[in-house]
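Dear Dr. L.,

I hope this message finds you well. Following up on our conversation about the binding site, I have prepared a predicted three-dimensional model of the protein together with FE2/S2 (inorganic) cluster. For your records, I am including the exact sequence and ligand specification that went into the calculation, followed by the structure tokens. Please feel free to forward this to your student if that is useful.
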Amino acid sequence: MLVKVRNKDEFQDSVPFVFSHEGFEIVVLLHIKEFYAFNKDCPHAKGDLSKGRFENGSVTCLNHGLQFYLCNGNINTDELDEDITDNIDLEILNKYVLKTYTVVAINNDIYIEFP
Ligand code: FES
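The resulting structure of the complex is given below.
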């Protein structure tokens, strides 16, 4: 099912737009000419990813510094702070996958695809 978010022209690069749908809050983001959609809540401890740092195709959660790829929600384990790697096993960290959604552009509108 496709749900319309808003017009493509209303997005600015790396400025998140929070979209609510059936009780979920989803961040829709234009970043380096690509559109992405992902859950607003960080899978680690519900940090607000709409307030995260967006760079090089990823979002960094400002709560504890985990960085997720926008394309698939996996953690970028190359960019972990020593504070995190010293205290949390990498196998456990890899369980924190950010939920992402498929974004579809039709004419000049942006949609999210829901199952
Ligand atoms: S809540 Fe996001 S890294 Fe901990």
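In brief: The chain has two helices and nine strands.

With kind regards,
A. P.
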